[in-house]
Write a structure and sequence with these properties.
Layout: H1 3-29, E1 33-35, H2 38-62, H3 64-69, H4 74-89, E2 93-95, H5 98-121, H6 129-137
Antiparallel strand pairs: 1-2
Length: 138
């Protein structure tokens, strides 16, 4: 296995792990978000990553006028919809109510940032979006 592929796999694993751990924190903090177990959190992390990389850019582009009108506030709605969609797809992961719809993605993002920063400080740095793109192109 070449270095770039192993870096990609390691980065994907760490990203999924950070997101899964963040989802478990969201489960504890946000009422209405329920995760049955760690495997469900890991699958949900992969689904959220897939939705954020495939559906979110399209939804963001289509809602650009609303985002301008709300000074970016509509991004919370897009994140909430994607969070809810992931919960609808993944068995063992559910999100019910407005607090889960809006607060879940916000807390997920904050906790994921702290966990990713912790990994970086320990030398387990997650690849940035530009690094992942560079690896894909090589």
């Amino acid at each position: 296995m070449s270095g770039t592929w192993s870096e990609t796999l390691w980065g994907t694993f760490l990203t999924a792990l950070a997101t899964a751990l963040s989802l478990l924190v969201v489960d504890l903090v946000i009422p209405g978000v329920n995760i049955a177990n760690f495997p469900s959190a890991l699958i949900a992390a992969l689904v959220i990553g897939f939705l954020n990389s495939s559906v979110k850019p399209i939804a963001t582009a289509l809602s650009l006028p609303l985002n301008y009108a709300t000074l970016g506030g509509f991004s919370l709605i897009i994140n909430g919809i994607l969070f809810w969609l992931a919960a609808a797809i993944v068995p063992g992961f559910s999100a019910h109510g407005l607090i889960a719809f809006i607060g879940g993605p916000v807390v997920l993002s904050l906790v994921n940032t702290f966990i990713s920063k912790y990994f970086a400080e320990k030398g387990l740095e997650l690849p940035s979006a530009s690094d992942r793109q560079r690896i894909r192109e090589s």
